[in-house]
Amino acid sequence: MGWEALKLWGDDVVRVEPLTGGVGLNEVWSVRVGGRLAVARLGRRGDADLAWETGLLRHLDRAGMPVPVPIPATDGRLFADGLVVMTHVAGGPPETEADWRRVAGTLRRLHRLTLGWPQRPGWRSSADLLHAETGTRVDLRAMPPEGVARCRAAWARITGRATCVVHGDPNPRNIRMTADSVTLIDWDEAHVDVADLDLALPHDAAGLGDEDYDVAAQARAAWEAAVCWDPTGTDPFAAQRLAEVRAIS
């Protein structure tokens, strides 16, 4: 059905402008629903995956955490044919060390609110990938074996710790800040894992200390290399992140 599914949110829904180039997993547009600005995302995620994501966002919203809230279609559905419509979030990216400390506080709140949360359907955690080779966008078989060994060594350093939902991609583009709130957007990479994957922030804003920051930064670099690796091995970001993962004797 594609973008035709927007009619399920009402006869007056209109697309305003694209917010992405329409490449990758999703195409994202600003839309107007009932005269109010919102965001619509069309992608290839299955129903179980979207049910997990929208259920998580509603849980966080009920707990008082600022998040993009799924807007139900006229029949009550929170998604249809890969399409999700969410509230628009205003604000700008973090810029200062103090901003990043606020981001760290928001991430830690997310982690506290989701201890024991079930895994996103089809996903693997970093601990799972110590033995498994595939999971959602990760296919370790496509990576150089020596690189896989380095990634697994980095993930092994965070095993045994409590798991929760991690946002998975807390970069400045996915953060909206105002004087009163910090909101994480784009939950496409969210899954259940060790909190450290979210906490290797600029200025060590989460207060990990040198040793724990290094552990978290290495695990996150390994994760991003694995998630972004393509079969040709030509993705420059993935190659850069893999190069940052040190060999551990």
From TrEMBL:
Keywords carried by this UniProt record: Transferase
GO molecular function: transferase activity
Residues of the Aminoglycoside phosphotransferase domain: 18-205
InterPro entries recorded: Aminoglycoside_PTrfase, Kinase-like_dom_sf
Organism (species): Amycolatopsis suaedae
Top-level taxon of the source organism: Bacteria
Keyword Transferase recorded: yes
Name of the protein in its database record: Aminoglycoside phosphotransferase
